[in-house]
Amino acid sequence: MAIKDRLAARMMRLVLGRLAKPSRAMLLAGADLPGPRPVTVPTADGEVRVYVYRAPDATGEPAPVYVNFHGGGFIMRHPDYDDHICRALVAETGCVVVNVDYDVAPQRPFPVAPRQALAVTEWVARDGRRQGWDGERLAVGGQSAGGNLAAGVCLAVRDRGSVAPVLQILNYPPLDLAADPSTKLARTASPLIRPSMAKVFNNAYVPDAITRTDPLASPLLARDLAGLAPALVITAEYDLLRDEADRYAARLADAGVPVSHHVMPGVDHAYTHAEPTAPLREALTLMTNALTKAWS
Question: Which of 59, 65, 71, 76 is such that its CA lies 20 to 30 A from the CA of 109?
Fold first, then answer.
């Protein structure tokens, strides 16, 4: 990776890290839940810290579990920025949420993050009985870069035959890192993610352009999507990344995968982390309904 790309990624991380922090107004449910419990998961690519959210008075059968991957262009490490989403899912569905603090670029470029995401997901499924959740009723999902990782996990576990997620939730994910960002369409004059910004993300995360065709980097480019977990795909009307996720939803349906696809009107990328809260509320309703149906 060129020094200028590394410097650009670090500068962007500093600036966007401050701008992307959600306000207290985004916490729509679960404010009274206790703080998450940190757990360290060993993987072949280093230890990964996860944060486990659960209801304090959970009794009876082990709860289903949702593995969440945060966004941040693969370069920002802010799992706590998804706190409002994790709390809402626990409060509304009674599930356990495992929020994953995966390593980010440019210090740990591709394929570290997807390998860690896969290892943590398999650990969640395998260690459920000891941890107190139902590892057989497992769903995965994420926002932005986290949606990319969730899609990659579903491809990997299908090929390995290791885990069978009941649902994947992909919120405004980048799914084609091989395409030149300047060729992508944003339906607004001032998109949140501009092509120049997307290039910084891509160069930091996958420095080798050829490697960006790997399905773990660009799930849209996977040859076969048959047999993947049922999916909820949510895209944002004005997002530069919308078309690739829309195409992924269509390809999943063509491959026989049950898909629910929603284009959130009037919003841009990362709408789940910025006011007004109405689009977030709608997205959370879609997520909780899909999870409840999948787990039942």
Answer: 65
